[in-house]
Amino acid sequence: MSTDRIRAKGLSIYRPIIYGNTAVVLTPEERETHPSREHTHRWTVAVRSAASAEDSDIVGGADDLGYFIRRVTFKLHETYPNPSRNIDKPPFEVTETGWGEFEIQIRITFIPEAGEKPVLLYHHLKLHPWTASGTDMEVPPPADVAAQLGPVHSWQYDEIVFTDPFQQFLNTLRAHPPTRLPKARRRPVPFHTANPGSLEASKGGVPEFTAVMEKDEIQRLEDAKKTIVAEQEKLRVGLIEKEKELERLRGELNET
Fold first, then answer.
1. What is this structure's pTM?
2. Which residue of 55, 124, 160, 210 lies most exposed, with the fewest beta carbons within 10 A?
3. In sequence order, what DSSP letters do the residues of the chain get, joined into one string?
4. b or e along 113-134 (b: 16 or more beta carbons within 10 Å of the residue's beta carbon)?
5. Cα separation, 180 vs 119, whole angstroms
6. Is it the case that residue 152 has pLDDT exceeding 70?
């Protein structure tokens, strides 16, 4: 057997990614000439590296993920022509127009050398910024106000973990180390995630993932693992108790 097909037992290696979307309001001129007059926004859904390039207004995308991702399939709402969009090279993204928000299924397929199953992710397309309305409810602002506020951003940080990878694939990953996340934010807070009425909210801005966020996400994943283990143990103990009860009832039945 080739050494390339031998797995590196006991080793895990990960790659940080983000997935999500950005959206902008169509101008009156764009809406007037658009084939679908009811469309209100232009949006882009994407899978990118977590780190952002310096002096770039693009969220993430500092690294080319094509060295380990073979294809990303975005499954859009069924009302779109050809709703399953296969993107076979970076940038792994789809740009469309529309008027409604919906869930997008994202399927990541790795290069053949990885020997890994595809990963499924889900993202709820976000078009509207949410601002305080003076009540307990929050409502999206009018289109003209939203256009002035700037693009809406909705992104999720994640880590794709490869456990016991094939040696050839491991060599490929090690040859392309990910760009480090900045230790602190270098950009303004995006308006729709800042406190309404704050200075950052009025400025808008492009979100950026940082090393602090990465640590927070790792801790969240660890907490989730602990919760799952605790739930599994609880179910195991419950199953043992049920089995004991079943044996007791069987014994009583045999005695009658």
1. 0.74
2. 55
3. --GGGSB-TT-EEEEEEEEEEEEEEPPHHHHHHSSSTT--EEEEEEEEESSBPTT-SSSSBSS-GGGTEEEEEEE--TTSSS-EEEE-SSSEEEEEEES---EEEEEEEE-GGG----EEEEEE------EE-SSSSEEPPPHHHHHHH--EEEEEEEEEEEES-BHHHHHHHHTSPPPPPPSS--SPPPGGGSPTTSHHHHH-------HHHHHHHHHHHHHHHHHHHHHHHHHHHHHHHHHHHHHHHHHHHHH-
4. bbebeebebebebbbbbebeee
5. 23
6. yes
N-term to C-term CA, the chain: 63
* In the chain, % of residues over pLDDT 70: 82
Give the pairing type, strands 12-25 and 131-132: unpaired
